[in-house]
Every structure is written in structure tokens, then in C-alpha cells.
Design a protein that fits this description.
Blueprint lengths: L11 H11 L4 H6 L3 H16 L5 H15 L2 H13 L4 H6 L11 H14 L7 H11 L1 H24 L28
Length: 192
């Protein structure tokens, strides 16, 4: 897949800032900068979402990557795994998120979080009362609300990137453990 819009010209200041943060200019920004208001709003929301600290960082990372694998956003998987490394999260687990159902490295809570992320991503959503209650019991109300908002933002980002044709930039190549390929059985619209 190739970008479905040409890359926009960014100011030197924005380019330098992105290179300083990521080592390269993220293609989603280059794609959306044709409408700077949309690009800035996405960046601002992403920054706010990433500043939330009421839910475990690993759980949120796994949830975002589970959404990315289901939607097919290779860019989000790539950057998510790279960011997991930078946040000193468990890379053995993070590397297995694209095939979490087959992997044996996850705890029951982590599995429930990724199932919840996929259930929220299905069209229509397939979140059950039982799954919500199990998460509520184990992580609490504030963390469940945060996790839900985080997954909703992950859907915004992954679907935006996928629709615009944004693909992996190779950020995860800097990680010591290779990122697993997504399982063949995942897909938007089908209950997992």
C-alpha cells in the first residue's frame, strides 16, 4: 500500500521537532498536514491521551497494538512496539501482541484487555457485560474508563492511518526482539 495523499511540506521547526522525538518525521503527520488544523488536533489529542496515568502503561500499550493488528495498521504496530521499548515495557510480551491469542506469554488480565480492545474495534462493537465486569473488578472504574478512552483513540489513529495508506516506517527495527506477524484470524468486523 502506498500513501493515498502526497506528503505535505512541513515547516523546518515541525520537522526538527519530529526528528528529535522519533528519529524521523512520522508519515501520519506528513499525510495529515495538508490540513494543519486536523493534524494539530490529532497530535494534541494523542498527547493528552498519552499523558493519562490511571491505567497500567503495559495494558494500554498492548491494547493499542491489538487494535492496530486487528485494523491492519502496520504503522501503529511499528511505532507502538518502538514506544514500548522506549518506555521499558516487557518487549517479549509486546512483540507477541499481534498474535496474542496463540502466544503463551500473557496473563489472564492482559488477555482480557486485548480481547476488550478487539471487541471495541469490531463493527459493531462486541463488548460484553461479562468482559466489562471482569475488567472493572480487576482494574477499577477509573482505569477502565481510561482504558476505554485509550482504545477509542487507538481506533481513531489506526483507522485514519489505514485509510490514508500510511504503513510501517521501520521504527521497530531498532528493537532487539522482532515483532511477531499478526495472526491470520484477526480482522475488523468479525468477533474474535
Amino acid at each position: 500500500m502506498a500513501l493515498r495523499v502526497p506528503k505535505a511540506e512541513l515547516s523546518a521547526e515541525v520537522t526538527e521537532s519530529m526528528i528529535e522525538q522519533f528519529g524521523a518525521v512520522p508519515e501520519p503527520l506528513e499525510a495529515t498536514w495538508h490540513n494543519p488544523e486536523v493534524a494539530r488536533a490529532g497530535q494534541e489529542m494523542g498527547a493528552r491521551v498519552n499523558a493519562w496515568n490511571g491505567a497500567d502503561a503495559s495494558l494500554k500499550s498492548f491494547a493499542h497494538m491489538a487494535v492496530a493488528a486487528q485494523v491492519g495498521c502496520s504503522w501503529c504496530l511499528d511505532i507502538g512496539y518502538f514506544q514500548a521499548q522506549n518506555q521499558n515495557l516487557d518487549l517479549t510480551k509486546a512483540s507477541q501482541v499481534p498474535r496474542w491469542r496463540e502466544s503463551e506469554v500473557f496473563t489472564p488480565l492482559e488477555r482480557d484487555v486485548m480481547e476488550y480492545a478487539e471487541a471495541m474495534t469490531n463493527t459493531p462493537p462486541t463488548v460484553t457485560d461479562e468482559l466489562s465486569a471482569a475488567l472493572l473488578d480487576r482494574i477499577g472504574t477509573a482505569a477502565l474508563v481510561e482504558l476505554t478512552g485509550f482504545i477509542a483513540f487507538a481506533n481513531f489513529a489506526t483507522r485514519n492511518n489505514t485509510a490514508l495508506g500510511v504503513t510501517s516506517q521501520g521504527f521497530s527495527a531498532a528493537c532487539e526482539i522482532p515483532l511477531a506477524a499478526p495472526a491470520e484470524t484477526s480482522g475488523v468486523g468479525s468477533p474474535a
